[in-house]
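Support case: user asked for a sample of complex input and structure output to validate their parser. Sending the pair below.
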Amino acid sequence: MRDYREISLWKNVTPEEWNDWHWQLSNRITDIEALSEIITLTSEEKKALNDDLLELRMAITPYYATLMDPNDVNCPIRMQAVPTSKERYTAEEDFYDPLAEDRYAPVPGFVHRYPDRGILLVTDQCSMYCRFCTRRRFAGEVDRPKSREEIQAAIDYIERTPVLRDILITGGDPLTMED
Ligand code: SF4
């Protein structure tokens, strides 16, 4: 792990800020300019990022960024966070919604995984957008928690569906939701 104070972008950040998850979330790296200050991007990568960030959501927490090898494009930590053009390739066999979650969503934000088990999607915001995400069709789409009204509508559905006995609260990072 690199010392964050050696990265110009964060040289004035206090340890209290650095260790505060609110600060980490608020200071995610979301554009090529900031990313260029942390890792060395090849010209090919820069071109790909310029083109692809219009379609591929990127967000990397500063802490995670210090774990990336700044000079190795094959660093596995870096490959989990930095988009590449290959992600835009889709094969004929690919499914938009491989788990058919949209089909089994009786109300927005709630999906029946099984008749008696469901998932409550309370946010689409993740502190980092993983390049391997299986929910990329909506992870980061609006990059915020669902509204209270949206969540309440899903809770109302759960209340009037007594067969449900197991609810997983998820989405992006549900534990980073703020009031
Ligand atoms: S939903 Fe999970 S896997 Fe997908 S980007 Fe968010 S944290 Fe990563």
